[in-house]
């Protein structure tokens, strides 16, 4: 298994952050690594999301779990390995919110592909979270 986690803290209300996440069509406005996004339904477990990055290789995800207002999990089934990302909002005692992205690569080829592919997938997490938080704070 390969894993990576990145978090930021913000004064933005959880509800505002959650609205940004559930408005999948707007993801390209705060995630520079998405130039086009398509969804085959509503923001719900089982819905497929197809993201097109600048280099053009489409990425297909499936929403695997949702805890409304708190977290959602997406998965990319790549055959011999699965890429799972948990997006979580954690309330902090001071009224702020911790925003976390956590990615795991699991499956028979995870130890082989994880060290090369994982850092490529997660390299933009600091920038993506910073952009999300800036938008939610404005």
TrEMBL record:
InterPro entries: Polyketide_cyclase/dehydratase (IPR019587), START-like_dom_sf (IPR023393). SUPFAM superfamilies: Bet v1-like. It comes from the Bacteria. Gene3D superfamilies: 3.30.530.20. It holds the Pfam family Polyketide_cyc2. This is Polyketide cyclase. It comes from Actinomadura logoneensis.
